[in-house]
Amino acid sequence: MFTGSMVALATPMYADGSLDWESLRSLVEWHIEQGTRALVAVGTTGESATLDVHEHVEMIRRVVDQVAGRIPVIAGTGANSTTEAIDLTENAARCGADACLLVTPYYNKPSQEGLYQHYLAIARAVAIPQILYNVPARTAVDMLPDTVKRLATIGNIVGIKEATGDLTRARELLDILPEGFAVYSGDDSTALELMLMGGHGDISVTANVAPAAVAQMCETALAGDAATAQAIDQRIQILHKVLFLESNPIPVKWALREMGRIDGGIRLPLTSLSPQHHATVREALRSAGIL
């Protein structure tokens, strides 16, 4: 089982939108040094929606090669076409990814039975461990706990990233899912509470800019040391908020540029962080001890 802080890795780009492989290499090394427990490549924060298939697969391959087995690599391979999701998942497996993260099909709004059949088809097609990803605020479809429970009986579906931020939903999932099926937070603001309830880790946006703090918060929470985990989380709570002042990954990529970690390019239809938010994000980075 994958546990702890799993960074939803931003994809470095130059100002013209081309991929910056050298910055990617540096980011991977930094995360490993800072205690990140797994890297999630080409998820929402990685701008999967605007990478073409070749770039998507190449990003996974380069992260896997750079990591070289030191920590797990989880590849984002979800799509609103089941056939495309299978193809991306097959490619991730060939690249050597340790698992895949599959967002619910967006825009076409499948039924709960459609969601079940979608994930069943991918699991049957590719043997790699697979993590479900529920983020209805982005996809316009909510995978309900009963559907997750059905899918949890499939051997290579091993967990879910629950990004609703609803702790009542998280509690229900933890109560009904079989032992050994991982429940991960996809919402930094409530990740600590979810782990203290019995969750298994945080697939984190905040960890892009504060990897050591998020890693330490996760480790202490998973060890049951609530007081230490809460003290760490209190120091970075401001980041959980300001990194969503505009659509993710707009603020986090601006913050990484401010930190000198990446060039800061981002692809349309996303644009760089609005100037009125610059001082707020900069002050949050200072408050968290990053700048």
UniProtKB/TrEMBL annotation:
This is 4-hydroxy-tetrahydrodipicolinate synthase. Homotetramer; dimer of dimers. InterPro entries: Aldolase_TIM (IPR013785), DapA (IPR005263), DapA-like (IPR002220), Schiff_base-form_aldolases_AS (IPR020625), Schiff_base-form_aldolases_CS (IPR020624). Catalyzes the condensation of (S)-aspartate-beta-semialdehyde [(S)-ASA] and pyruvate to 4-hydroxy-tetrahydrodipicolinate (HTPA). Pfam families: DHDPS. It catalyses: L-aspartate 4-semialdehyde + pyruvate = (2S,4S)-4-hydroxy-2,3,4,5-tetrahydrodipicolinate + H2O + H(+). The active site is at residues 133, 161. It is found in: Cytoplasm. Belongs to the DapA family. Keywords: Amino-acid biosynthesis, Cytoplasm, Diaminopimelate biosynthesis, Lyase, Lysine biosynthesis, Schiff base. Pyruvate binds at residues 45, 203. The keyword Amino-acid biosynthesis applies. GO terms for molecular function: 4-hydroxy-tetrahydrodipicolinate synthase activity. The gene is dapA. Coiled coil: none annotated. The keyword Metal-binding does not apply. It is an enzyme of class 4 (lyase). It comes from Microbulbifer spongiae.
